[in-house]
Amino acid sequence: MTSDIHSLVGAYALDAVNDLERAAFERHLAECEACRTESAELREAAARLADGAWSVPPPRLRDTVLAEITATRQLPPRTATVSGAGPAARARLSRRHLLSAAAAVVIAAAGAGTAVYTVQESRVREERSVAEAAREQEARVRTILASPDVEVRGETLRDGGRVTVAYSRLRDAGVVMLAADAAPGSGRVFQLWTVRSGTPVSEGVLAPGQAASVTIVERMASATVVGVSIEPPGGSATPTDMTAGVKII
Q1: Does the pTM of the predicted model rise above 0.70?
Q2: Which of 37, 45, 158, 219 lies deepest, with the highest CB count within 10 Å?
Q3: How far is residue 240 from each of residues 24, 124, 165, 223, 233, measured CA to CA in Å?
């Protein structure tokens, strides 16, 4: 506990003292009118500054406030004489200084809390967007597979596993399901292709270490072959190492 009991006034006003310090400072308040006045005004200033800043307190706000208080040195009440000023004027100057310090602490804490809240809201929006995209993809896959004209063809991968293509000319779309026994070695990746008018067109690149995927391919009416190749990370402009090909027409 600090040796200068006066210096606890700011921490006490913001409820940032331990039980021992609280008991000692409350005994001191009974004897020190200056600290009683400063503590009351600091509590009022903190309440007004925080009022309306947010409808729901950002997570970890208490921890942020306590960290700010720990890093902010609390000064005892000023005792130096202000030239030409009476006791009331000196008290006003002292309280104004402490109120400004309290305002700085609360505003800093509010800014940090709002930043945390904004980051978390952004993450929630991203997660919702990903979940919605997954639901839409699942619904599209079900629609294609339920088409009355759906055809299913497949081919074994060179190094084990299978690529299966289910396509509907009525929907003009297909679902390519890759299930390899293992991902390519040496950091290489699988890449999916269609051949359209004799030209290979990339339909997606899997991540390093990924051995399975479900991919929706649009405009299947113009495709004659669906292929799988093994490429450097990020994929290639044209296939370099074909591991399977499924003829559509």
Answers
A1: no
A2: 45
A3: 78, 40, 21, 19, 13
